[in-house]
Write a structure and sequence with these properties.
Elements (H helix, E strand, L loop, with lengths): L2 E5 L2 E4 L4 E8 L5 E9 L6 E7 L4 E3 L7 E5 L5 E6 L8 E9 L2 E4 L3 E6 L1
């Protein structure tokens, strides 16, 4: 059984910062990619950022230069540092990991950015 536990969401004013954390536990032998998706009300879930086991990162154009995705010293953890937050960043953020033959999701953590 694989579990992803997210934390760090909340309410912040525009221009502020938040850091999301995700810790994966269970029978995980090799994680290929860890990342963050988000889903705003009435919109499709979208990939925000990801990092491979080799350290290569991807960022959606809308967050480039503001968000940083990184893995912790414990390789089953991933972070999303979010700076200069905008109201349009408001969404539920989901942690996601890809291993050989499977994809796992966290339960989601809400982020609300007030103007």
């Amino acid at each position: 059984q694989v579990q992803l536990v997210e934390s760090g969401g909340g309410l912040v004013q525009a221009g502020g910062s938040l850091t999301l954390s995700c810790a994966a536990s269970g029978s995980i032998f090799s994680i290929n990619v860890m990342g963050w998706y988000r889903q705003a009300p009435g919109k499709q879930r979208e990939l925000v950022a990801s990092i491979t086991s080799g350290g290569n990162t991807y960022y959606a154009d809308s967050v480039k230069g503001r968000f940083t995705c990184s893995r912790g010293n414990a390789k089953n953890t991933v972070y999303l540092q979010m700076n200069s937050l905008k109201p349009e960043d408001t969404a539920v953020y989901y942690c996601n990991i890809r291993v050989v033959g499977a994809i796992y999701w966290g339960q989601g953590t809400p982020v609300t950015v007030s103007s």
